[in-house]
Write a structure and sequence with these properties.
By secondary structure, this protein is α/β, with parallel strands linked by helices. The chain has a single domain, classed as Rossmann fold (3-Layer(aba) Sandwich), CATH 3.40.50. It has seven helices and nine strands, in the order ααβαβαββαβααββββ. Strands 1, 2, 3, 4, 5, 6, 7, 8 and 9 form a nine-stranded mixed β-sheet that branches. A hairpin with a 3-residue loop joins β7 and β8. The chain is globular, with a radius of gyration of 17 Å.
Length: 248
């Protein structure tokens, strides 16, 4: 464990942790309050898998391209991404701000026979380092200090490692569809999003560069009646991006 007396900026917002902690018991229900995450997860996983194959020149046919590698998912919730990463062969650590989510994640992983190391607390206070892959999906828009958060993610990433982040874009369309629309009709729990905290691709690229990372081209996560949620050139609603940490 890291030293809790250090002067690192706090990244956890207690109200956000409480909001998501209240959803913990329902997290694994594909028709419950996290239904949208269940629809989003295969799209994110498709991007992550492609990024893994490119970064490590992996065989796209391999079922365990992360064998022998360590993966860290920050803001892991109840483990929707941690479990697939474990099945891809990684030794996985998941971190979340809500203790309720960590408990739900541990129970679900145990039920599935998966050995995942779940932690509760500030990422900068947990002494985490040396990970080959670091992910943070739909998290940065919820943290108190975005610059400090990205720097902590980068500090946990090993030289030559891969990072993947996804987040809503701060556009008129995301305000209309994600905040005023999806939350109003119940597709997303009310109070989940605060539009002013959304991050544009240029802003995220700057944050990643400030942390010493080289960013790839972002891909949009869009929605259409015919395709549902899918990867797209349209970044207006939501997007996902990879970044790399050069080897020393």
């Amino acid at each position: 464990m890291g030293n809790a007396t250090t002067n690192r900026p706090a990244t956890i917002r207690s109200d956000e942790a409480e909001h998501f902690g209240r959803l913990a018991a329902d997290w694994w229900d594909p028709k419950g309050s996290s239904a949208m995450l269940h629809r989003l997860n295969p799209v994110r996983l498709g991007f992550v898998r492609s990024a893994i194959d490119r970064h490590w020149d992996a065989d796209a046919r391999s079922v365990r391209p992360l064998a022998g590698r360590r993966a860290l998912d920050v803001g892991c919730g109840a483990g929707l991404l941690c479990e697939p990463l474990a099945r891809l062969g990684a030794a996985v650590t998941g971190v979340d701000a809500a203790a309720e989510n960590v408990a739900a994640a541990q129970a679900h992983a145990q039920g599935g026979g998966l050995a995942i190391d779940y932690r509760h607390g500030e990422i900068g206070e947990l002494g985490l380092s040396g990970f080959d892959l670091v992910t943070a999906m739909e998290v940065i828009e919820h943290v108190a200090d975005k610059r400090a958060f990205v720097r902590e993610l980068a500090a946990a990433l090993d030289d030559g490692g891969l990072m993947v982040l996804s987040t809503p874009n701060r556009t008129a369309r995301s305000r209309l569809l994600m905040v005023e629309g999806a939350e109003r009709i119940g597709l997303i729990p009310r109070g989940t999003h605060h539009w002013d905290d959304f991050v544009t691709p240029d802003e995220l690229c700057d944050l990643l560069a400030d942390a010493g990372l080289e960013t790839g081209a972002p891909e949009g996560i869009a929605w259409s009646p015919s395709k549902g949620l899918h990867l797209s050139d349209d970044l207006a609603l939501n997007y996902i991006v990879s970044a790399t940490k050069k080897a020393a």
